[in-house]
């Protein structure tokens, strides 16, 4: 009799805790979480079929706004994906490369070094930390990052393991996150993304200050990296060396360099010395006369290319990595080939739509465009309207 | 509100300051770990030591240095209780030894002498412990008031202001310990011979932050008895904790946001906003305090300890007297036992009552009534002045106490008039509209008292009353209320939460068998219980104010 009672209680308790865990888990994953473009991008990366990416790009926002994977595929047959988040931290680089390698074995891993060039403390900025790690599924790499990052410890590790502890108040923001939430679900159900993580802003940079870009290809000036960032860079390079990576390409994407950001440019020169010490390849596009010849109309702010700039840079970058680094295109199966072709079709429609938004944007407001259900619908509607 | 600060807490190398607040996840883990050790310990006789160790650890997470105050209280209480006990035993032995030799007068004389001696010993304990409490809590208030008075007379003296930190739960453990001392003095309770057991009684962790203030005889036996694990008790404890979490995290900590915004810039707001704030405060305070007590009782219940319920749906009270029997019941009981009766039954009061009875006025019907109830009514006023001062070192709290005391005093003194008016109007006590009117009237009286609580000062409280009648502007109020840090959705959560509390209270108020909701639920189908608990848990997780996205508020009564 007692045994029966114990079993019944055990079943009831288990049912209660399992159902609670399930509901809380779903809420944490889809409803009450950090909703933004970074989340959509990383989700899109994780749903890509294994071993289908030729070039993985890790780092910060320059990656996903500067190169269009669909265009790169169309022009050079190379599949690529920006495994990158806004203002990515230096401490996250090791985790990013590990995470990317968990599902993909790319021929070339392109690493933007922006995170090592900061003059201020980006490492402690909660938004920079969370932009990345909140969007990584719980696994050994994430645990290692959480446990080994002092800034995370200071913020409270529990909220990184169980993000609902931090984001449960997001219910108050609804219906605003609804579009992002449904976009993630749709994307997960679809099994692939159209823009492959690309994000842009329909805006043109307006700048009154002096722009240094034209003289930078010949500028050898160097400034030491902030000590803590040099330590981060060297530790990362040591790690890459230990792991015997021979497919790394460190890059510095083109920027509009002005007085305020000139020092960062000189740190980029210094980074070249350090990276070369370890024997890795480094292309500093801030020293490249072609890349630095893009006008301010090709940027939406001084750090990021807009869609017009990204079209130019994608083409240029594709040429370099195929010519110089001999990246060969993977032979995709029928399913993946179809998906990438679909991505190319969508890219052109997206380009047209973005161009239209530019033209409409007479006040030059910041209009962010990235893959959501809402955007897909608008792009398709615009394309249909245009066809008529 | 929410300004209870403590220094010198335990520091963990990874998670920083380890303060175990009742609504933190750490506290839940701590309770579960303590329960595990408690029930696994094979020696039932010594299970109380687990509670003692847990209580000391809990206190140290807040402040180990300020724990010295609690140790002092325990030690002084322990020694003085033993002293009292010995004095009483010695007196009995002497009386027994001289039973045949001493005359009745000799015995009476000796008894009186012993009583005086014991009273002195008890007074020593009261002075020592209430002295510490009074010094830490009221020194700066009295020093400031003294300086104001001396300044008014242009006297060149200034009492210094001191940076005093109030140890966690000092009011609660001091009241509890002194209640024990009085009980030993009254020979209602045997003095505890084991100082560690007394320390557990004083420091029992579920009640240290905000009570309830337990009576030794009621609590100690349960603490020292080794309890076996009981699933039903455990389940009921967890359900009560969950209900407490709901009240505290979903309602109280959300409602406190606009209240804090108003108190921070009190002068800025008009009558409508202040009216709204006072109403919201009534809900917030109840949800906060009763929620905290539910957590305390739930945790204690897991360990087999039934603590006194501090609340009995106070807003359903039909008189202010009844309200104070339903609100903070343990404090009311303590004050009744250890302050009200000693004052009301004191020789001075009895004599005054008798004297009045003998006067010409005392011979009239009104005079007879007044002389009869005078000791109780004046004692009530004194008790409420003490309650007011206990709430805080400020004139506004004195006014709060005076308001409640005066209302009770007047209601006692004018009771025959009310009864006669009711008779003339043919109103029966069971008449539902009349009952509702009484509840509404009592609630209004309570709200007036809350104005003193919420307003930053006595003069601001007076200004608030003035604005209630002269500055009602709904349009302005709406725009001010919308700008107090809570959105419409949050207000809706508070409203729904308040409604849930109201419905639960009505169910319990109407329960004929006196069963609480948890026992009622036990009789319902499993699926209904399952669904209710599940909804409660998810509501806490989703709507609770916790985590770094929010700043959870301290328990209001923790500052007392």
Pick out its properties.
heterodimer; A: 388 residues; alpha/beta; Rossmann fold; five-stranded parallel sheet; two-stranded antiparallel sheet; 16 helices; 9 strands; globular; B: 560 residues; mainly alpha; 3 domains; two-stranded antiparallel ribbon; 23 helices; 72% helix; disordered N terminus
- Element pattern of chain B in H and E: EEHHHHHHHHHHHHHHHHHHHHHHH
- In CATH, the homologous superfamily of chain A goes by the name SGNH hydrolase
The DSSP helix count of chain A reads 16
Taking pLDDT < 50 over at least 5 consecutive residues as the criterion, the unreliable ranges of chain B are 1-9
Strand order of the largest sheet of chain A: 2-1-3-5-6
What class, by secondary structure content of chain A? alpha/beta
Largest interface, with counts of residues having CB < 8 Å to the other chain, equals: A-B, 25 and 23 residues
Number of domains of chain A: 1
- Briefly note the structural class of the backbone of chain B: mainly alpha
Question: Using DSSP, what is the number of strands of chain A?
Answer: 9
The whole-angstrom Rg of chain B is 26 Å
Low-confidence stretches of chain A: none
Please describe the topology of this protein.
The complex is a heterodimer of chains A (about 400) and B (about 550).
Chain A: H1 2-31, H2 37-46, E1 55-59, H3 61-66, H4 69-76, E2 80-84, H5 93-103, E3 108-112, H6 126-133, H7 140-148, H8 150-155, H9 158-161, H10 164-167, H11 178-190, E4 199-201, H12 227-242, E5 248-252, H13 262-277, E6 281-284, E7 299-301, E8 304-305, H14 307-323, H15 334-360, E9 368-370, H16 373-387
Parallel strand pairs in A: 1-2, 1-3, 3-5, 5-6
Antiparallel strand pairs in A: 4-9, 7-8
Chain B: E1 11-12, E2 16-17, H1 25-40, H2 47-62, H3 67-97, H4 104-152, H5 170-185, H6 195-203, H7 205-208, H8 216-224, H9 231-264, H10 271-302, H11 320-326, H12 329-344, H13 347-358, H14 360-363, H15 365-391, H16 395-413, H17 415-424, H18 432-454, H19 458-470, H20 474-481, H21 488-510, H22 517-522, H23 526-543
Helix pairs in contact in B: 1-2, 2-6, 3-4, 3-5, 3-6, 4-5, 6-8, 9-10, 9-21, 9-23, 10-18, 10-19, 10-20, 12-15, 13-15, 15-16, 16-18, 18-19
């Amino acid at each position: 009799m007692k045994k029966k009672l114990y079993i019944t209680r055990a079943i009831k308790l288990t049912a209660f805790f399992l159902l609670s865990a399930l509901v809380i888990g779903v809420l944490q994953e889809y409803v009450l979480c950090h909703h933004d473009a970074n989340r959509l991008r990383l989700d899109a990366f994780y749903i890509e079929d294994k071993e289908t990416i030729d070039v993985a790009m890790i780092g910060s926002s320059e990656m996903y706004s500067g190169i269009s994977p669909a265009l790169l595929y169309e022009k050079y047959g190379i599949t690529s994906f920006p495994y990158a988040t806004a203002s990515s931290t230096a401490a996250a680089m090791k985790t990013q490369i590990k995470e990317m390698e968990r599902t993909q074995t790319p021929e070339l891993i392109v690493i933007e070094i922006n995170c090592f060039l900061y003059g201020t403390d980006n490492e402690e900025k909660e938004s920079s930390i969370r932009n990345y790690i909140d969007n990584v599924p719980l696994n050994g790499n994430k645990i290692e990052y959480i446990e080994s990052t002092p800034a995370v410890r200071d913020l409270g590790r529990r909220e990184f393991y169980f993000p609902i502890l931090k984001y449960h108040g997001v219910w108050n923001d609804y219906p605003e996150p609804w579009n992002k939430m449904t976009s993630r679900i749709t994307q997960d159900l679809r099994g692939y993304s159209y823009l492959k993580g690309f994000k842009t802003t329909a805006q043109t940079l307006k700048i009154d200050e002096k722009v240094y870009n034209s003289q930078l290809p010949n500028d050898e000036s160097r400034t030491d990296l902030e000590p803590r960032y040099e330590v981060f860079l060297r530790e990362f390079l040591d790690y890459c060396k230990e792991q015997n990576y021979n497919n790394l390409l460190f890059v510095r994407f083109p920027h509009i360099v002005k007085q305020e950001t000139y020092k960062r440019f000189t740190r980029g020169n210094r980074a070249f010395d350090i990276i070369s010490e370890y024997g890795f390849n480094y292309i500093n596009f801030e020293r490249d006369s072609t890349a630095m010849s893009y006008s301010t109309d090709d940027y939406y702010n001084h750090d990021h290319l807009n869609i017009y700039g990204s079209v130019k840079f994608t083409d240029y970058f594709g040429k370099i990595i195929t010519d110089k680094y001999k990246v060969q295109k993977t032979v995709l199966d029928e399913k993946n080939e179809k998906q990438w072709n679909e991505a190319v079709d969508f890219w052109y429609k997206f380009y047209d739509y973005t161009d239209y938004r530019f033209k409409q944007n007479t006040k030059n407001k910041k209009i962010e465009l990235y893959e959501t259900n809402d955007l897909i619908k608008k792009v398709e509607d615009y394309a249909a309207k245009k066809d008529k | 509100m929410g300004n209870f600060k403590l220094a010198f807490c335990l520091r963990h190398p990874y998670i920083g300051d380890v303060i175990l607040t009742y609504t933190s996840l750490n506290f839940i883990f701590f309770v579960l770990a303590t329960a595990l050790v408690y029930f696994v310990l094979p020696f039932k006789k010594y299970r109380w030591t687990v509670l003692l160790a847990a209580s000391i650890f809990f206190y140290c997470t807040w402040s180990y240095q300020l724990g010295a105050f609690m140790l002092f209280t325990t030690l002084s209480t322990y020694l003085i209780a033993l002293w009292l006990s010995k004095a009483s035993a010695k007196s009995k032995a002497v009386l027994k030894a001289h039973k045949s030799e001493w005359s009745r007068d000799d015995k009476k004389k000796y008894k009186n002498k012993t009583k005086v001696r014991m009273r002195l010993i008890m007074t020593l304990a009261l002075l020592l412990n209430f002295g510490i409490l009074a010094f830490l809590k009221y020194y700066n208030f009295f020093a400031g008031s003294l300086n104001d008075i001396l300044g008014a007379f242009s006297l060149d003296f200034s009492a210094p202001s001191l940076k005093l930190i109030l140890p966690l739960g000092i009011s609660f453990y001091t009241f509890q310990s002194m209640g024990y001392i009085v009980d030993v003095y009254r020979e209602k309770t045997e003095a505890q011979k084991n100082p560690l057991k007394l320390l557990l009684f004083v420091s029992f962790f579920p009640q240290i932050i905000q009570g309830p203030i337990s009576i030794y005889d009621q609590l100690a036996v349960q603490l020292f008895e080794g309890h076996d694990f009981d699933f039903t008790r455990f389940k009921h404890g967890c359900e009560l904790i969950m209900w407490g979490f709901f009240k505290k995290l979903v309602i109280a900590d959300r409602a406190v946001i606009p209240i804090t915004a108003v108190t921070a810039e009190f002068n800025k707001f008009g009558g409508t906003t202040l009216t709204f704030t006072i109403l919201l405060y009534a809900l917030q305070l109840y949800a906060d305090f009763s929620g905290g007590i539910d957590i305390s009782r739930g945790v204690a219940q897991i360990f087999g300890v039934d603590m006194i319920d501090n609340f009995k749906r106070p807003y359903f009270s039909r008189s202010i007297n009844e309200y104070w029997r339903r609100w903070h019941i343990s404090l009311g009981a303590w004050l009744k036992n250890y302050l009200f009766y000693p004052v009301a039954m004191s020789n001075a009061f009895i004599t005054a009552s008798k004297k009045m009875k003998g006067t010409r006025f005392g011979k009239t019907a009104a005079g007879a009534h007044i002389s009869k109830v005078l000791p109780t009514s004046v004692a009530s006023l004194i008790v409420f002045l003490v309650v007011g001062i206990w709430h805080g070192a400020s004139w506004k709290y004195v006014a709060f106490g005076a308001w409640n005391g005066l209302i009770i005093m007047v209601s006692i003194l004018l009771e025959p008039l009310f009864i006669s008016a009711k008779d003339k109007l043919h109103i029966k006590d069971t008449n539902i509209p009349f009952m509702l009117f009484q509840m509404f009237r009592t609630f209004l009286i309570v709200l007036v008292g809350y104005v003193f609580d919420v307003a930053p000062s006595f003069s601001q409280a007076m200004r608030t009353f003035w604005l209630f009648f002269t500055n009602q502007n709904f349009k302005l109020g709406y725009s001010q209320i919308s700008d107090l840090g809570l959105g419409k959705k949050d207000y809706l959560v508070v409203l729904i939460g308040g409604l849930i509390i109201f419905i639960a209270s009505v169910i319990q108020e109407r329960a004929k068998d006196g069963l609480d909701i948890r026992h009622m639920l036990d009789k319902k189908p499993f699926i209904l219980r399952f669904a209710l608990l599940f909804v409660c848990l998810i509501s806490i997780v989703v709507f609770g104010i916790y985590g770094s996205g929010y700043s959870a508020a301290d328990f209001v009564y923790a500052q007392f």
